[in-house]
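User: Predict structure, ligand glutamine.
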Amino acid sequence: MLDAILQMDCLALAEAIRTRQVSSLEATSACLEAIDKYNQKIGAFLTVFQQQALDQARDVDRRIQAGDKVGPLAGVPIAVKDNICTTFGPTTCGSKILANFRSPCNATVVERLMRADAIIIGKTNMDEFAMGSTTENSAFGPTHNPWDLGRVAGGSSGGSAAAVAARMCFGALGSDTGGSIRQPAAFCGVVGLKPTYGRVSRFGLVAYGSSLDQIGPLARSVRDCALLLNVIGGHDPKDSTSVPPEIVPDEDLLARLDQPIDGLRIGLVKGATEGADLPIRQAIGRAVDTYRAMGAEVVELEIPALDYSVATYYIIATAEASSNLARYDGVHYGYRSPAARDCMEVYTRSRAEGLGKEVKRRIMLGTYALSSGYYDAYYLKALKVRNLIRQQIFAALGQCDSILMPVAPTTAFSLGQMAADPLKMYLADVYTIPANLAGIPAISIPVGLDGAGLPVGVQLLGPAFSEGRLLRIARILEKGAHWTCQVPAGLTV
Ligand code: GLN
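Assistant: Predicted complex:
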């Protein structure tokens, strides 16, 4: 029975709980058992709300038994990345500087999960302040890939992806500034969706690159991503960049998920997959076959400005980060160096001791790009190139419904393999960054395993606020790939 429960996706579990075939207590206990068994080895969770989760589960079961109306995620255990604020437990952002930080408020997405009666089971590991692609930059140790413990889970939402893959929860929230939902989803064999910028409130998300950051779901099926986005999406007066209801279609993303799409056009960017490893290129080839077989037209696109996306991103993201992270000064938030002898040293020592190497590198890069004399040459130019990239992507999306491309050039690599070469690590973000620069939605779908038994994902991008259609297009691929998110080989649940 336990096995059967842990094979379900959120939607199936929610239905089973509502109809009292399964209790939330059973499902929550099963996740807590998996956490007990594996978290030491995998490092997916930084905090687990064991008692609170069990209490909430019992409460949901009681309400269902009493015939009360419950929310769409009633009794379903969900994990939340540790840069999303909760009043319960710490919100560390994977950083020593926030190790003991307690948020005075819940993020809007957390409020919405709770309103939907989800069980928030814990906070997941991440690269410090979401800066990284492997979760190795966490101050609390790396996350290991459940498919091969010697490999990275991806990042920065590596803990969320590994937790979903290893059945420690049924779904999770991550944040995506340059690929941090989609790339770990691909490395761990789960589905990950970065929504349109402004579709999901960022209130209570600790800022990294504010013009790029977006919260989204990681789950075991496309329909779960639809369900989770239904719950967390929508206008929030607390976030001035959250888009008002007149612009975001007020739609039930689950309602039309299985409806066929007539005249579907899939775009392939000329030359884009050349830098990817063979299993990734083959997966793209198979995805093209799936769409062709259902009558879709495949169009070739040219987006020359994409060549500049990594450079553009690493100027804009670091510039915004250098400004956002100025608040960690030993006075306003978190860690204060006990060795500081005067006011200046409170700032310098607290930051020197509290922040990790990669975060410092980014603050320095960003400060440099924003400094007088370099502002025009770097930051301003990057803004102009970003605009060009956006325009070219929008034009390309005028010729097709969705652009198909890899998520990452490789599958999960070994822990430590890339750590010494930050530039190489940055360059591997080439496929995920464009969606953030353009503010458009993009989804990573697992389509099978490579020769080494590691998950392979592919990515679909769509126009702003086209999530309804994008999820339907992703659903076609999910069905065609005949690969549902499996329990990683070697893990028994
Ligand atoms: N790997 C990218 C970076 O380090 C993406 C991070 C993210 O999306 N949060 O900036």
